[in-house]
Specification:
Lysozyme, about 210 residues, about 5% strand, 10 helices, 3-stranded antiparallel beta sheet
C-alpha cells in the first residue's frame, strides 16, 4: 500500500511539473522571447525541471532560442558586434597597429574571431590568448606570457604582418596562413587550403574587418 501511495505521489508531482512547464511555454510563445532559454531536469526521483537564461553548466540544454537574435542574420550580428566604441583592449590594439602599420579594425576582427576578446582563451590545439598564439609562435616573438594582452596582441599583429609580407599583401592568404599555417597555404599552391575551418575563418575575419 505504501508503495502505491509513493507511485501516486510521484505521478502527481510529475503532473504538477508538466502543468507549470506547459504554462510557462504558453507564456513564452505568446510573446517574443528576448533571451535563450535553457532547461535541465534533475536525476532525482521528483525529476525537477530547471529553466534559466544563464546556464551554469553543460547539463542545461537550449530549449528556446532568442527570437530577436535568431531573426538577425549572422553577418548583421557580426557587424553589430564590431560597431561598438567600447571594444576591449582598444588601446593595446591601437599600439600594436601603430607598431606594425596594420589597421586597428583588422586586429580587432581577428581577436573577435580568434577568442571573442577573451584574454584567457585556450583552444584544444593549444592556441592561447586573445590572438590564439601557438607555443612556437609565442617563442618566435619572445612572448613570456601568452595570456598577457599586450604581449599577445603585439605578437599576433607582428606575425600577421610577416604573413602579409610573405604573401605579397594578400590578406586572404595571410589570414589562411595564420589559421592553418603557411605550410598548408604553400602546399595548395599558395591558395586558401580546402579546409572548412580555415575558409570559414577567413570569411568571418574579412566580414568583421570590412564592416
Amino acid at each position: 500500500m505504501r508503495g502505491l501511495r509513493h507511485v501516486f505521489a510521484t505521478c502527481l508531482l510529475y503532473i504538477d511539473h508538466m502543468i507549470r512547464f506547459i504554462a510557462l511555454m504558453a507564456l513564452i510563445a505568446a510573446g517574443t522571447c528576448r533571451a535563450d532559454i535553457y532547461v535541465r531536469t534533475t536525476d532525482t526521483e521528483d525529476g525537477e525541471i530547471s529553466l534559466t537564461n544563464l546556464p551554469a553548466d553543460s547539463a542545461y540544454m537550449l530549449l528556446i532560442a532568442d527570437q530577436e537574435k535568431a531573426a538577425t542574420p549572422r553577418q548583421e550580428r557580426d557587424e553589430i558586434e564590431l560597431d561598438s566604441d567600447k571594444l576591449p583592449y582598444d588601446h593595446l590594439v591601437k599600439q600594436a597597429a601603430a607598431s606594425t602599420q596594420l589597421e586597428p579594425a583588422l586586429i580587432h576582427a581577428m581577436i573577435a574571431v580568434e577568442s571573442g576578446h577573451q584574454a584567457k582563451a585556450r583552444s584544444i590545439k593549444g592556441a592561447q590568448g586573445l590572438m590564439q598564439l601557438m607555443p612556437d609562435t609565442s617563442k618566435a616573438y619572445a612572448v613570456n606570457d601568452p595570456y598577457n594582452p599586450a604581449q599577445n596582441i603585439l605578437a599576433g599583429a607582428r606575425y600577421l604582418k610577416s604573413l602579409l609580407t610573405l604573401y605579397g599583401g594578400d590578406l586572404s592568404l595571410a589570414l589562411a596562413a595564420y589559421n592553418a599555417g603557411p605550410q598548408n597555404v604553400n602546399r595548395y599552391g599558395r591558395q586558401i587550403p580546402p579546409f572548412t575551418e580555415t575558409r570559414n575563418y577567413v570569411a568571418r575575419v574579412l566580414r568583421k574587418y570590412r564592416s
